[in-house]
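Handout, section B. The chain below has 191 residues.
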Amino acid sequence: MDVVGTTEAAETAELERLRAAAVAGRPGAIDDLLRRLQPLVMRRVSKFLPHQHDAEEACQDALVAIATKLHTFSGAGSFAGWVSVVASNSARSTYRTLKRRGAERAVETLPERPDPRTTSVIAGSRVDLLEALEALESEKPHLLDAFVLRDLGTLPYEEIARVTGVPLGTVKARIHDARAFVRQRLVERLT
């Protein structure tokens, strides 16, 4: 086993140890677990949300959800995979909230400085992706989880099959179909 594999295995074992201690009610265990998960969750939500403040908000929401729903982790798939699902859902929820807030505020004058969340090239590409994901969720919701876990969560196909409870072939087909849908949405935005 290489150094990276050894490090990942050690991290997985440590997260599982902290999770078990937190579920068992060991004093301070939940704080230790959340402290250990915070960088992982922040990296995950930052893939969705280009603005630092928004990513931090989603990270906090995800950590609260992890703390309050820790007992619901069933053991199907890895704990890190479950955390990835919670973080991804939190990021998408934060994006929807931000979009709703933006629509509710009527802007009477243009801001002096453009909002980087909607105008920069990097941010724009992520906003386009989030809008494509939103369309995927509303039009083909059965494809969303597998796509998010693979292409944004970088989970292996086998792990996605365990987390979603569907056969490996179905997971691969869903990811393929979701990629085609998202690709088409992104191309439409360019033209």
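Note. The chain has one domain: 26-103+115-190. Compare this with the example in section A.
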